[in-house]
Amino acid sequence: MESFVMEPGQCVIISENPDMKLVLIGFENHIKSNDMTYKTTVTVRLEELNFTWETLHEIKDDPDTEIIKFTGEILTGINEDSYAIFVDDIEFTETETEFIFHKATIRVKYSTN
């Protein structure tokens, strides 16, 4: 699984299944709170010729690390096709009040059920 960088609105064709596209719809910016739980909701869409499927998934920062890094896994699929989308990193800008997300480094694992 090779990693690649995607920005909101970009799509890639999944090499193991050329009829399927993965679209990174975007990220929800996160307003900071006193509990220091940092997170974002990532929205992705799978597109086939006659079908689309959107998935929203919350990605959190690991509070036990010294740096802020958003990583996680999104499980999704259409019919017999399953995908694990590994979010290795999300680039962001931190302000005093929020995190603004820009792009993600991801890997995609394809399997059939």
Shape: elongated
Strand count:
9
Kindly estimate the percentage of residues that lie in beta strands according to DSSP.
over 45%
Helices and strands, in order, run as EEEEEEEEE
Mean pLDDT across residues:
91
Kindly report the oligomeric state of this protein: single chain
Give helix % range: under 10%
Query: How many helices?
Result: 0
Distance between the termini: 19 Å
List the uncertain runs: none
How does the major sheet shape up? 5 strands, antiparallel
What class, by secondary structure content?
mainly beta
Over the alpha carbons, how many angstroms does the gyration radius reach? 15 Å
Write the layout of secondary structure elements.
Blueprint: E1 4-6, E2 11-13, E3 21-27, E4 30-31, E5 39-47, E6 52-60, E7 72-78, E8 81-94, E9 98-112
Antiparallel strand pairs: 1-9, 2-3, 3-5, 4-9, 5-6, 7-8, 8-9
Description:
- The chain has about 110 residues and is an all-beta fold.
- The mean pLDDT is about 90.
- The chain has strands at about 5, 10-15, 20-25, 30, 40-45, 50-60, 70-80, 80-95, 100-110.
- Helices cover about 0% and strands about 60% of the residues.
- The protein is elongated, with a radius of gyration of 15 Å.
- The strands form two sheets. Strands 1, 4, 7, 8 and 9 form a five-stranded antiparallel sheet that branches.
- It is built from no helices and nine strands.
